[in-house]
Specification:
- This protein is an all-alpha fold.
- The protein is built from 4 helices and no strands.
- The N and C termini lie far apart (54 Å).
Length: 111
């Protein structure tokens, strides 16, 4: 068996660990809400709820964005790196998505 790799970098601080845990939790909540919308539709309102799946998904995405913003604010992530990754992802989505936007969606997107 080969030699064990030990990272030369310091372990995350307690604060970094907590924020990363929050990031993971928010990603899971976005995933769950997107799955509900996929199964039951964007306009569905679950029994006992007042918001649609679309509204609840937007709320979860807002929560996720808040954690990402905090990671940037505290210098754990770099906003420029996130923006570059976003810009690089768009052409890949256009290439590999199996569906195309409607003409109305395309004009709203400015394509």
């Amino acid at each position: 068996m080969g030699e064990r790799f030990i990272s030369p970098e310091p372990e995350p601080t307690r604060r970094q660990r907590e924020l990363l845990a929050c990031l993971i939790e928010e990603c899971a909540e976005v995933q769950q809400r997107a799955t509900k919308a996929l199964r039951f539709g964007m306009a569905e309102v679950q029994p006992g709820q007042v918001l649609t799946n679309a509204e609840r998904l937007a709320g979860e995405l807002g929560d996720l964005r808040a954690v990402v913003d905090l990671l940037v604010l505290e210098g754990i992530l770099v906003d420029h790196d996130i923006r570059v990754a976003t810009t690089e992802k768009r052409p890949k989505l256009r290439k590999y998505l199996q569906t195309r936007p409607t003409e109305e969606q395309e004009s709203a997107d400015g394509r």
